[in-house]
């Protein structure tokens, strides 16, 4: 029988042993979501923000076929620079590990590993969702099904309008995933503070969200929770600017026949290029904002349980 080994950094191991607050971080955002060197700068800053807000960051990745929970700076730097990392979702993990691959973990894979490691909260930028035209392509991110079966609370800034946002929200309802907006009535659209869709619930503080997490767990719900934290006003892009860029990128992907797991990385890279870096700047700002909320939630949650 092959058993699963996970490597923990000392910092994360100590924190988990003490029952101290820990926040998980994904790594597809590093390997496939942003270009070097901004990806490395972002990854380091996110960890600093989590520490500054009282929690320990646990960046999760697969390095040469092995799961790591908490990366040292040299590992982070290497991952940010590597050009042969694959993108691994929860269903890909086993096969990628057997082949000894290095992989950025998507939201679904990171949730799965965080749950196994005993980490309740995970911060990222955006989650995957139901793609536009899914009625023909069936392209629905595995992130949504993982949210429906794994009890990890994911803090994001909503989803990008590269996706069909109303369908994504409907799908999450079917999966019994609560959607809670932080300090807003609206579900945010990543670069902008509103998608035009209402969020099901609004909670205004990390403490309230932590209480909801504890109750959701006590109810035996078994699913994840999606916390939608709008991008700060001063970092938000205007819908007029970003929507044109997104439309152009979506059209290019269709014209070039981009499919499967390449769709999301292709769109992220093209949006960044077409917006001349403005989307990347906003993306980094919202990830830091999510890390801060997630760290405060982790502190509040540990005070409750
Ligand atoms: N959306 C973003 N940035 C990202 C991703 C999505 O705005 O970096 C990444 C996340 O890792 C997410 C994955 O889990 O893409 C979803 O990929 P797919 O759509 O192929 O399921
Ligand atoms: Mn897909």
From TrEMBL:
Cofactor note: Binds 1 Mn(2+) ion per subunit.
Active site residues according to the UniProt entry: 26 (proton donor), 160 (nucleophile)
InterPro entries, alphabetized: Indigdn_synthA-like (IPR022830), PsuG (IPR007342)
The protein's Enzyme Commission number: 4.2.1.70
GO biological process assignments: nucleobase catabolic process
Residues bound to Mn(2+): 139
UniProt cross-references to SUPFAM superfamilies, sorted A to Z: Indigoidine synthase A-like (SSF110581)
Origin: domain of life: Bacteria
UniProt entry keywords in alphabetical sequence: Glycosidase, Hydrolase, Lyase, Manganese, Metal-binding
Reactions that this protein is recorded to catalyse: D-ribose 5-phosphate + uracil = psi-UMP + H2O
Cofactor(s) required, per the database record: Mn(2+)
Cellular component, GO, one term: cytoplasm
Pfam families, alphabetized: Indigoidine_A
Binding annotation for substrate: 87, 107, 141-143
Keyword presence, Metal-binding: yes
Family named by the database record: Belongs to the pseudouridine-5'-phosphate glycosidase family.
UniProt function note: Catalyzes the reversible cleavage of pseudouridine 5'-phosphate (PsiMP) to ribose 5-phosphate and uracil. Functions biologically in the cleavage direction, as part of a pseudouridine degradation pathway.
Name by which UniProt lists this protein: Pseudouridine-5'-phosphate glycosidase
Organism from which the protein derives: Pseudochrobactrum asaccharolyticum
């Amino acid at each position: 029988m092959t058993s699963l080994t996970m490597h923990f950094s000392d910092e994360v191991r100590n924190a988990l042993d003490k029952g101290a607050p820990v926040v998980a971080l994904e790594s597809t955002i590093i390997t496939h979501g942003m270009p070097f060197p901004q990806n490395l700068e972002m990854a380091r800053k996110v960890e600093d923000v989590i520490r500054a807000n009282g929690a320990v960051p646990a960046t999760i990745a697969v390095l040469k076929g092995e799961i790591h929970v908490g990366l040292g700076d040299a590992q982070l730097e290497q991952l940010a620079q590597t050009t042969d990392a694959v993108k691994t979702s929860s269903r890909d993990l086993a096969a990628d590990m057997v082949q000894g691959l290095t992989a950025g973990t998507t939201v679904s894979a990171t949730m799965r590993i965080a749950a196994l490691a005993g980490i309740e909260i995970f911060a990222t930028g955006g989650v995957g969702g139901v793609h536009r035209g899914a009625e023909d392509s069936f392209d629905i991110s595995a992130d949504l099904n993982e949210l429906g079966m794994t009890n990890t609370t994911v803090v994001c800034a909503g989803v990008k309008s590269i996706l069909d946002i109303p369908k994504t929200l409907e799908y999450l309802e079917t999966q019994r995933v609560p959607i809670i907006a932080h300090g807003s009535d609206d579900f945010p659209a990543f670069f902008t503070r509103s998608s035009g869709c209402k969020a099901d619930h609004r909670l205004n503080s990390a403490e309230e969200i932590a209480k909801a997490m504890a109750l959701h767990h006590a109810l035996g719900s078994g699913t994840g929770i999606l916390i939608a934290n709008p991008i700060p006003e001063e970092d938000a892009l205007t819908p007029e600017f970003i929507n044109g860029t997104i439309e152009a990128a979506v059209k290019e992907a269709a014209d070039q026949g981009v499919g499967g797991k390449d769709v999301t990385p292709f769109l992220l890279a093209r949006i960044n290029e077409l917006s001349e870096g403005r989307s990347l700047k906003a993306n980094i700002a919202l990830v830091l904002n999510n890390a801060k909320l997630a760290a405060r939630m982790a502190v509040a949650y540990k005070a409750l349980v």
